[in-house]
Amino acid sequence: MTNSHIAGDASSKRHREHIEQPGSPMSTRPTKKCSTFSSLHVFRTPVKSHTEHSPSRSAKHVLSCWRSRLGCSKYAASQVDAAVPTLKYEKLENSFSHLKLRSPEPIGFTHVDATDSNTHAIFSMPEIVAKILKFLDADMALPQEIVPLRRRPQSLAHAVLKCNGDTTKGFQLWNQTVAQLKTETGQKSRFEQPVSGNLHSCMLVNKLWHELALQIVLEKLHFNDHRKFRKFLESSSHWPRDSSPSATKPSILILHKLSKLSQQDLDDLASRVATEKLKWFELYICPTVALSPDIFHISCNVEKLILPGNRFVSDQFLMSIARSLPKLKELDLRACDEVSDSGVVAIATSCPQLEICNLGRHRNGHRITSVSLVALARHTQIQTVGAAGCEITDAGVWELAMLRGQGITRLSFNNCRLLTNNSLPALLALNYLPHLVVMEVRNIVNITQVRPFIIYKRWKKSMGVPVLIEGCERIELLMIEEKGRLDAENRARILADLTKWVNCEDF
Amino acid sequence: MSIRPSPNDDIPETSFEDIETTLSPINRYKNGYNQSSPLRKQMPPPSTTSSESTTFSGNGNRYSTHTESDDADEEGKNFLDEFEEFHDKDEYQDIIKAHFDGRKRSNEKKTGMGGLNAFAEENGDNIDELADQFDQNLTLRARKSSEIPTLKLDKNAKQPNVSLKKSIRMPKSFERVSRRGIGNSRSASNLRVNWERPAPTNLRYKKSMPLLSREGIINEEYEDNNYEEDFEDDFKFEKNMLQPQFLNREPQLKPISPRQYTITTDETLLTPQLHSRHKDWVNPSNLNHFKEQQRRKARESGSYRKNRESVNHRLKTIKQEIDQNTPIKKGKMIYNPEKRTWEGNEQSLLRFRDVDTAEKKAIVITDKKLPYSSGSRARISDAKRQSNPKIVGKMMFDAQNLQWLRVDGQEEDPFADIPDYIPVTIPLDGGPQRSATAMIPQSSHRDPTKKRFSSTATTRFHSLSTTPYDFTFQIDSRTLEKFYHEENRWSKKVGGWFILDDPDVTSTNNDQKLPDPQSKNFMYEIRNMVISSARN
Amino acid sequence: MSTNEANVPTLPQPKNTFTIKVGLIGDAQVGKTSLMVKYVENVFDEEYTQTLGVNCLDKKIKLGSADIVFYIMDLGGQREFINMLPLASEGARAIIFLFDLTRPETLKSIKEWHRQATGFNEMAVPLLVGTKYDLFVNFDPEYQVQVSKQSMRYAQAMDAPLIFCSTSHSINIQKIFKVIIAKLYNLTMRASEIKQIGDPLLIYKHLGSKRRFSENPSSRNSSSRTPSPHRSP
């Protein structure tokens, strides 16, 4: 393994060199768009380098040494292990600094055969190329829900409150929100378009590159475009299933907002993709497809299961897959309103490592009660609980705090109409939730006592931990008032103390 | 007695205008004419129109709707033209002529410069010079002879181009005729008002002038702008005139006589918070009295060494980072390496200005306590006989009457030959008399003019006026003051509105329109009125 | 709103810390460093040690609801250090101008110190402190009268409380810092003034209140929490 590490280091160094040499023609080339694309340029460089005709002699020499030492055809790990130490590190550096992998003048893509003798040999070494491509993969963004820093305001007045009473700012925020909501209904503009294509471009370089890049691509399957998904299914049907077994064993499988996704497509996918290695399965707002529990039966590695907005996720489904998810850490069942306490209990009892569980919903809130909370508290390592809109009670929250109080970091209890001052405010006041950093308490009519919130927030702030408490307009208003009152009390107390000190004879 | 040469003092004429015209214009004018010239009894009543002309103050220039001539000749013609009008409509030409001739003659007689008349008759241009000389002589003499403002004989007065027209709005300088001139005396108040403005030289009737002056109502004013240089002289002269007349000498600060006062420097005034010592001075042995109680010290007295070490340990010293010879600029301060000082913020030194001049000390002046002064507080009314009179300079304090008297008894009364106006205000029940007082109508005591007149005299100086005022017009000072202020305000407000006109002309052109109906200049006036009233 | 007081105490209440920077400024050898050391450590050393630059010490005073940290900076009185004046005066909440009661010329140079220091910081509460009162009492009464009066006039000109102190005899040392707090937060200080000439003057009630600015103790909470930039010069 060390050899590949070294190789990786070297290539990354080169990579950095390229980026960091401001004077190099590479970086001054006008086609360079912006720094975020620098990696793209770097990795396009090998493509262009095929046409390079005058690599420096010393570099050639070094590489020929390499080749002779390593042998041209196969680079067994042991061989590399043996070879690399023999090379002086400094020399390697030198040789890399002389690697001019770009053509002197920019030219377009020309597909040159990999056997071109002018190609730098380093780019025909699969290990090195694989390393390079992995770096590229690391830059790849997955389609994901952007979690807003703060929740959207519920109204203009609320927006103003959020902006600490700054009307103009609040107005701006509200307008923004409205605009966002408008565009969102039709488009997924809220979601980042992943910077993709780098790896795919690499697949076009030559056979070696194609092979290596494909492996990496198949490692993480993610689609947020229905057409691309279709294409993938079509092309994948040509792949012989056995020839490249790793190709169909992704660790990540994300289907992001594929609204046209049909049951047939999903079944196709399931038949072609092996799920043994699957760690992260996400079916983000694809409401019309039912997952077959079989997908999970093969795998027991799934750590992250994101199924928000799927109406086919039911208690039965959860119960059938629960046993296959021993490593599950994150479960997102937002808006899966068919799920009830029994499903959650099944998950909780089978997934001891569960840390994040979101059961928030707008409908069927009565199906989730304190039973779920208690089950999660008792059987899992729960840290984040989302139970927005559920009919959980003070008792459940208390149980959660008693059992998992030290671990709880985020709680979302928006619209939990049964909660009162006896749960969250009291728990915070008693400091039973000492590590809470996010708490959402919107539209809980029975919470009227917010002083513990403020004191808690202050206390955490004094320790350098910002606490986010998302309230509705009413609660935020209460908090502001309470804050003022608390400030005044503090001020008075401090001034009294100061006066006392000023007037005491001895210090 | 009023110390003023004229009771009209200080009344801006225009301030009365409305009131008078509405109240008793006829009587007033009748009286006035009777006073100045008995021949004018049949003078038509003035128009109730407040003014036939308006002064526009457009863009720096002043316009009068009156036609004014630029030089004396024109003036003369103009004057004659006006006389023509008079002649046409009334038969007063002779009256007027007689009037002015008489006046002139009397002037000449009085000033003893009879030759001037001849010059005046010549109506030449060089007359100005002579007139100036004359003015100056007259002024000097007059001021010498009596310390009251001397009325200056105006050169134009010698010329026949005297007009009975125009208002008082234009005066720039004033004609001075002798006090005994025929009703042409200028009141001090006239001098005061608008004297800086270019003024017509023609003789005018001042419509708004209170009629109570037994000397009549004719104002003489410059009308000609060419006399600017003369105005300069006049200017100087008037300036003096404008001073309170009894202060004609420049007031000077005389050193305070230590004989009369105890003068002590009192630094404590500057440091009021410091108390002077009234106990024994602190000596080192009782310093402990002020020692701050320090519980902690007692506790830690044993650990002195430890403390010292901790000090050395904790004390951080920031050493010079930059060479002290490097100039630095920081905010408004600039480091000067040569002087080794920060420059800037010099104004803060001003705070210490007084502190540093230690010589500057507060001085307390107190009455000298004289041992026997209080004992001999006899009923000596005469200050001179007082056992210990306080004398400052040549003045002596009359403690009884609380007034200052001259030590040498040479109490000059500069106002001696100023007739008191008290008789003027005596209401007469009887028939018409030739005296000034006789001309006051029976209704005079109801006439606001008179109240005003008395008010001005009393308001300002009533504390100094020793003789009791006329009982009829005994108005308490508060009321007077109220009147006074009200009038001032009123005059301020409306003072610039209208040019008052000669009643004669007014009578003839009762419904006179603005001279230039086409001109929109009056808009300016309205605008100014609005502005000034808004400001007030 | 009724507060469940029984619940509140279990949640630790964060303490406010007020860091108050105080600059000590005045001629050489008037006793700036010894005043500082005396106040912070209650130690007095007769030996004179020249300050080569700016000395810093901090003293924490723990009160029930807040801590006060006096961060005292004492500028070497020698002319060669005057270019470090901004260090001692900028950002200071109070500037103590010291002079030696036994050397009238040190009072006179207060004028210059005041000009330069206020050029950097107009907001600071100024204090005029006469040192070595214990030696001052040995002088003849007329001298004492003159110096007292003159310093009073300086204090009035500067609008600064006037305090005569003795570091060696612990006279009015604590008072200086209490006056600072009282002036800074507009507190009522009841300590009676000492106004009689010859006594260690303590005149503060009507001085130094003009430039007080509305101060919100808890609003300074966050700012005082951040480490003072002057700590790591």
TrEMBL record, chain A:
Entry's Gene Ontology cellular component terms: SCF ubiquitin ligase complex
Signal sequence extent: none
Biased composition (Polar residues): 24-33
GO biological process terms on file: SCF-dependent proteasomal ubiquitin-dependent protein catabolic process
Record-annotated F-box/LRR-repeat protein 15-like leucin rich repeat domain positions: 301-448
Region (Disordered): 1-33
InterPro entries, per the entry: FBXL15_LRR (IPR057207), Leu-rich_rpt_Cys-con_subtyp (IPR006553), LRR_dom_sf (IPR032675)
PANTHER family documented for this protein: F-BOX_LRR-REPEAT PROTEIN 3 (PTHR13318:SF105), PARTNER OF PAIRED, ISOFORM B-RELATED (PTHR13318)
Protein name: LAMI_0H07294g1_1
Species for this entry: Lachancea mirantina
Organism phylogeny: Eukaryota, Fungi, Dikarya, Ascomycota, Saccharomycotina
TrEMBL record, chain B:
Domain of life: Eukaryota
InterPro entries: Bfa1/Byr4
Polar residues compositional bias, start-end: 434-443
GO molecular-function terms, A-Z: GTPase activator activity
Regions of compositional bias (Basic and acidic residues) in chain numbering: 65-78, 289-310
GO biological process entries: mitotic spindle orientation checkpoint signaling
Region: Disordered, residue numbers: 1-78, 280-310, 429-457
Acidic residues biased stretches: 10-20
Gene Ontology CC terms: Bfa1-Bub2 complex; mitotic spindle pole body
PANTHER family, A to Z: MITOTIC CHECK POINT PROTEIN BFA1 (PTHR35140:SF1)
UniProt-recorded name of the protein: LAMI_0D10286g1_1
Annotated source species: Lachancea mirantina
From TrEMBL, chain C:
Pfam families recorded: Ras
One Gene Ontology MF term: GTP binding
Listed SUPFAM superfamilies: P-loop containing nucleoside triphosphate hydrolases
PROSITE patterns listed in its UniProt record: RAB
Keywords for this protein: Nucleotide-binding
Disordered: annotated segments: 212-233
Domain of life, per lineage: Eukaryota
Record field: compositional bias (Low complexity): 215-233
Protein name: LAMI_0H01266g1_1
Natural source organism: Lachancea mirantina
Organism classification: Eukaryota, Fungi, Dikarya, Ascomycota, Saccharomycotina
